[in-house]
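stage 2 :: seqdesign
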């Protein structure tokens, strides 16, 4: 849960966006967060024998998916929006594993790597064009100034939202379908949450895209003429990732989740009761793509044409807006429950234990004793001959007395 940034253990992920953008892309697409999903899938022989554990994985994944998507709706840092998007997609992967569709979880992990890395490096290209500006409220109107970045960001956004026949469409819709095919109460809940989260994903993704490239130019620090397209060293990786975002879903769907996918996975994944590829109602197959498609004009209308509607809604629902803006107050909860008590305990041990006992009777105490003895001893060093003669005579007297008594 911690490695894959699931709910309550997710707080490190958006904060990790302080790092350079290529590092962000690697964390989100290739190395860090995906290891948790991989581990759960590889541990399928353990999970398959515990329905309770699978249910827990499903619930955690569902909560993470909808939590991160709701928070991403109101964030303004371009990289943090994409970071919460990763968090939400990891929720999808977890609840896919929870309903027993381990191969679908791995398929989404695979396709997600392409379009998420594409979105991060595309976001880096936008940040570079705006001279390190990351707030999407200070962007806009640069569609023609950044044609290549615009194209790749459009491609990444379409793939992430599950636009028909792009990579995200095959893997994300498969997760929702397998949750439905599970034919259990929890599976139905997961499918419903998955559909609603797909709609939220589409809304916040298009919000980022439209606010960054469309509408009026909002940056007061940099004239629009100073914004420029990124160099080839930044654009060439986007080409390869764009190809993956376009075709990885279609090309690998049969291998990863097709009827003969067991031949590919062999002993890597264990199924106790494999979900059958049964017929799914047409309305269920169409509902997610339809929501994804209608979210595009809705987003354009609300964020570009009539932004005042959302501004008024925000002002009348400020508690809800603050709740989402402050990420469900999880950081504040941790501050009260863990950080402040830990600080108080640390302060107590520092002042009472370290300073009051260890230092007092240890290094400080010994050094104080040595200083007192040395000060007393130093008084014997007067520099007068008669004092030294007296001490010598006293010593001789003690020695003679000892010898006589002996």
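stage 2 :: out
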């Amino acid at each position: 849960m911690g490695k894959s940034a699931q709910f309550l253990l997710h707080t490190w992920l958006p904060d990790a966006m302080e790092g350079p953008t290529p590092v962000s892309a690697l964390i989100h697409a290739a190395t860090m967060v995906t290891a948790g999903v991989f581990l759960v899938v590889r541990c399928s022989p353990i999970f398959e024998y515990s329905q309770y554990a699978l249910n827990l994985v499903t619930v955690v994944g569902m909560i993470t998916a909808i939590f991160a998507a709701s928070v991403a709706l109101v964030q303004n840092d371009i990289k943090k929006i994409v970071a919460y998007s990763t968090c939400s997609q990891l929720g999808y992967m977890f609840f896919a594993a929870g309903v027993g569709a381990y191969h679908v979880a791995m398929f989404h992990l695979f396709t997600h790597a392409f379009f998420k890395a594409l979105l991060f490096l595309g976001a880096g290209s936008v940040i570079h064009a705006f001279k390190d500006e990351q707030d999407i409220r200070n962007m806009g109107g640069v569609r023609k100034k950044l044609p290549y970045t615009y194209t790749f960001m459009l491609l990444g956004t379409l793939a992430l939202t599950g636009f028909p026949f792009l990579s995200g469409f095959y893997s994300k819709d498969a997760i929702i379908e397998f949750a439905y095919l599970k034919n259990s109460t929890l599976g139905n809940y997961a499918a419903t949450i998955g559909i609603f989260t797909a709609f939220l994903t589409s809304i916040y993704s298009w919000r980022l895209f439209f606010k960054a490239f469309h509408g009026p130019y909002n940056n007061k620090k940099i004239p629009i003429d100073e914004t420029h397209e990124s160099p080839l060293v930044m654009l060439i990786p986007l080409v390869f990732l764009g190809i993956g975002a376009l075709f990885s879903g279609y090309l690998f769907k049969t291998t990863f989740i097709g009827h003969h996918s067991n031949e590919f996975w062999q002993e890597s994944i264990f199924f106790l009761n494999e979900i059958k590829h049964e017929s799914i109602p047409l309305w269920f197959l169409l509902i997610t793509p339809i929501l994804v498609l209608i979210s595009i004009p809705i987003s354009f209308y609300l964020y570009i044409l009539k932004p005042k509607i959302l501004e008024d809604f925000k002002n009348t629902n400020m508690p809800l807006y603050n709740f989402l803006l402050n990420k469900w107050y999880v950081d504040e909860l941790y501050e009260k429950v863990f950080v402040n008590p830990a600080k108080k305990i640390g302060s107590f041990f520092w002042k009472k234990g370290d300073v009051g006992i260890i230092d007092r009777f240890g290094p400080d105490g010994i050094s104080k004793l040595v200083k007192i003895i040395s000060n007393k001893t130093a008084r014997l060093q007067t520099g007068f001959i008669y004092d030294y003669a007296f001490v010598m005579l006293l010593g001789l007297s003690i020695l003679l007395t000892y010898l006589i008594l002996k």
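stage 3 :: structure notes
- Residues 177 and 281 are 10 Å apart (CA to CA).
- The two ends are 82 Å apart (CA to CA).
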